[in-house]
Amino acid sequence: MRTAATASRRSSAVRHPARAVPTARRRSRPRHGDIAVDTATGLLVDLRQAPNSVRDLPRGLASGRYSCLACGRALELCGPRDHIDFTARFRHTRHEIDRCPASPGQLARVRGAVADARALAERLIAAAPGVRIQVAVTATAELEVMPVLALQLEAPSGAGVIHLPHGELSDEQADRILACRDTARRQWVLFDRHDGAHYRAAGQVQARTRRQDQRIDKITPTSGQRRLAQAQVAVAWRDNGTLLLPFGGHPIAYPPRAAEDWSGSAASWQRDWKISQPRPADGAAWWGLLPLPLRALAAPALLGAAVTAMTDLEAAQSGREAYRRGKARERYAQQQTRRAPARPQQLALPLPADTAVSPNRSISAADQAPQATQAPAAVAPVPDLELAAQPSRPLPWQRWRRLLAWLRRG
Question: Which of 21, 85, 322, 332 ranks highest by number of CB atoms within 10 Å?
Fold first, then answer.
């Protein structure tokens, strides 16, 4: 005996036959079957963005030509080329439930990396309309290891490749980047400013260039970043619409020269830093980052501004050295003045009363001389022995006195 509920379900299935169709086909669709890597060309095949690209690709496994962007396994291109009702897709396996072995978090990170690469390509195309950009893959992924995407630029000024690491860059991926270098193309490795695996802040440094104070962010580069820079690869960071180009910072101490005093408070001025550019040299203690517009990646002419800015920083270092050495010489001169012995002062003796100067009398040079240096006013004559031996002759008045005395006695 049929119940009312059973009759209602059957009548609903008759009125709405689409609801009664099994959903096995919908469940069998892959979770990550619309993005793959064409290992023959190195380009990214995204069936969501370019569904017609399947017409130019061979079907099936194609000798392992396609690989999954999330797990790195070989894929199979399924679906007729010209059938309207069937959508082409990539499959991991044909006889089992098609699922990517990568974790849901890995799949989400891969999709985010692809979206980020496409957004960067659109921004560069908008900044330089004559540029043609294709999304490629430099290093394929493994389980829980992010792939390294790349943008291949074709511009009137030349070709270039921008590698976009996501997450920590492994040694194998760095080897892959260095292996695919081409002298005909400019190679960039563009890290993310907001990725903790790519950016390790180390404070700031202040420099004065062109009479303007400038604060520059410092970072501590990783071993992989140092390795890429030493291999003559252009390493940079991106921060939304800003491109950050690195230079090397080397701590130095000015050697003291003659007539310079770097002691006391001047000791800190003796320590400074110098720049290595246009790319960081080996042995740099830290890297500084110079900001430029992000469109400099597609417009090489803008990179000249970075070279000019680094040259200004190098000139500013020479100016700081000259200024600080001048301060050290001033300090040395002050120290010598303090250490010199005090000269004794000459005492001025008071003048006698009879030598007082009247207002109408001019003081001569002899009067201005100190009294201690003047000769005595009267000096006793030295007796001449020869004159004393001779008999003295009486003076005329003495003869008159003797004559008067003789007359009085007579």
Answer: 332
